[in-house]
């Protein structure tokens, strides 16, 4: 007995849920980025599982997984840069303090 | 249950545990390592599904993300090395260990190249991955996604510059 595609899809859904929950409820920006990465990782896993289930969509799934992974990493690096420049200016990492981003 | 199935269930368990730990932990260093283990476990699951290239990219990204996380965590909560390197002797010992491990890796890499060469011919790549078809699809049928990403990056750059100008304007008005 080994895990099938349905199990992997369930795992991907749990990861997506946990990631979104972390992004909504944690206030530290570093943890928020980690939670967003978890959500994106769940999405990539779901794409891979769907590609495995359907033989015709395998190449498309590979391309989409690649694009999601690369855009996730790019957005994370951009976010870290913005966060770090802000942290150097105000010495705070709590997102609730970032009032200038809401204006 | 086969050994591979057991290993896969173990990867499932580590993924879930790390995701939950990441959501509830307060220690940034532990969160960094939890994210690394989570991403590596996911790479293993993708490898099981047959996505070798994606798995490798995901693993590389997880290593880079861990370094980024540790850097920002050390900027937030203090130097990580303070907890481990107490004296000058300990620091020197750590440097020698790093030099030894790095030298070992370098020697092993050079020895492997000398033994079997770089072998970058066509047959050294996995024939199971249809690279040509993937490349054609990426730059042909799905090129709209690349355009969309470029457009989004343009919006982000314009937004960042606008925000920067507004903050500078507010600062100069506050100073005056």
Number of domains of chain B: 3
CATH architecture of chain A: Orthogonal Bundle
Q: Biggest interface between protein chains, with counts per chain?
A: A-B, 54 and 54 residues
Binned strand content of chain A: under 5%
Number of helices of chain B: 6
Rounded Rg of chain A: 17 Å
Short description:
With 103 residues, chain A is mainly α. Helix content of chain A is 77%, strand content 0%.
Describe what you observe in this structure.
The complex is a heterodimer of chains A (about 100) and B (about 180). With about 100 residues, chain A is mainly alpha-helical. Chain A has a single domain (about 5-90), classed as Helix Hairpins (Orthogonal Bundle). Chain A is built from three helices and no strands. In chain A, helix 1 packs antiparallel against helix 2 and helix 2 (about 30-55) packs antiparallel against helix 3. The longest helix of chain A is centred in the C-terminal third of the chain and has 33 residues, at about 60-90. The radius of gyration of chain A is 17 Å and the shape is elongated. With about 180 residues, chain B is an all-alpha fold. Chain B has three domains: about 1-85; about 85-130; about 130-175. Chain B contains six helices and no strands. The longest helix of chain B is centred in the last third of the chain and has 33 residues, at about 145-175. Classes of the chains: A mainly alpha (about 100), B mainly alpha (about 180). At the A-B interface, helix 1, helix 2 and helix 3 of A face helix 1, helix 2, helix 3, helix 5 and helix 6 of B.
């Amino acid at each position: 007995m080994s895990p099938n595609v349905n199990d992997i899809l369930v795992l991907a859904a749990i990861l997506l849920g946990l990631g979104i929950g972390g992004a909504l409820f944690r206030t530290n920006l570093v943890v928020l980025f980690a939670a967003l990465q978890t959500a994106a990782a769940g999405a990539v896993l779901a794409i891979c599982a769907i590609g495995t289930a359907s033989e015709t969509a395998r190449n498309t799934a590979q391309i989409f997984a690649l694009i999601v992974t690369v855009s996730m990493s790019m957005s994370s690096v951009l976010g870290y840069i913005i966060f770090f420049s802000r942290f150097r200016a105000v010495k705070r990492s709590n997102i609730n303090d970032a009032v200038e981003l809401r204006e | 249950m086969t050994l591979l199935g057991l290993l896969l269930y173990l990867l499932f368990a580590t993924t879930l545990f790390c995701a939950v730990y990441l959501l509830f932990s307060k220690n940034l260093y532990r969160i960094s390592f939890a994210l690394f283990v989570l991403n590596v476990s996911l790479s293993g699951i993708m490898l099981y599904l047959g996505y070798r290239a994606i798995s490798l990219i995901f693993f590389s990204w997880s290593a880079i993300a861990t370094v980024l996380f540790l850097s920002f965590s050390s900027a937030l909560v203090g130097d990580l090395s303070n907890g481990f390197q107490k004296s000058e002797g300990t620091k020197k010992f750590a440097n020698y260990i790093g030099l030894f491990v790095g030298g070992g890796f370098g020697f092993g890499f050079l020895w492997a190249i000398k033994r079997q060469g770089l072998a970058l011919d066509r047959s050294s790549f996995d024939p199971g991955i249809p690279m040509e078809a993937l490349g054609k699809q990426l730059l042909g049928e799905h090129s709209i996604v690349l355009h969309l990403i470029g457009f989004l990056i343009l919006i982000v750059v314009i937004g960042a510059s606008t925000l920067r100008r507004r903050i500078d304007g507010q600062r100069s008005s506050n100073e005056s």
